[in-house]
Amino acid sequence: MLRKRLLDQFPAVPSRPPGEKDIEALAAVAVTSEAPGHPIENAFDDRRGPGGSRWIAADPGEQAVIIEFDVPQTIREIGLEVEETEVSRAQELHLALSRDGGRTYQEFIRQEYNFAPPGTTFEREQWRVNGEGITHVRLVINPDRNGRPYRATLTTVALR
């Protein structure tokens, strides 16, 4: 008897853009919280853009995501995508880099994302970095600068 499987039963093969770092293979990721069904892995998968998978914090308020590289990395570009389809809010992001194993961080950028569904619901940013010997990348996210009890989200974090 022929052994067979239907093609739709095979797992999808992720398609990472050329030059993008495979975070799963190169680093551990520490996160303050994650909502059921929206783990931090979603921020590093291949389902991007509006409607893509995303990480959502389990708890309201400020959150942190730290990428801890196994060995120091050269980073030339950082890309982020954030989507909010439910509430109007201003999410603040503080991005910092460490070259000393996470003991100290140098702030790289502060960015604010303003969402006003149903109009403005998606933001994408790309920053050039001159990053040699990076051991840690830290994102600190304030989901609403007005202090309302909203949850932080990230659709994509991409490092090249």
Q: What's this entry about, in short?
A:
The chain is mainly beta. Helices cover 2% and strands 47% of the residues.
Task: Describe it.
By secondary structure, this protein is an all-beta fold. The chain is 2% helix and 47% strand. The chain is built from one helix and eight strands; from the N terminus they run H-E-E-E-E-E-E-E-E. The longest helix is centred in the first third of the chain and has 4 residues, at 23-26. It starts with 22 loop residues before the first helix and ends with a strand.
Name the descriptors.
160 residues, mainly beta, 6-stranded antiparallel beta sheet, two-stranded antiparallel sheet, 8 strands, 2% helix, 47% strand
Order of helices and strands: HEEEEEEEE
**Major beta-sheet overview:** 6 strands, antiparallel
Secondary structure category: mainly beta
How far is the first residue's CA from the last residue's CA? 48 Å
Instruction: Please count the helical segments.
Output: 1
What share of the residues lie within helices? under 10%
Number of strands: 8
What characteristic shape results from the CA principal axes? globular
Low confidence ranges? none
Which percent range describes the beta-strand content? over 45%
Note the topology.
Layout: H1 23-26, E1 27-31, E2 55-56, E3 63-83, E4 89-98, E5 106-115, E6 122-142, E7 153-154, E8 156-159
Antiparallel strand pairs: 1-3, 2-7, 3-6, 3-8, 4-5, 4-6
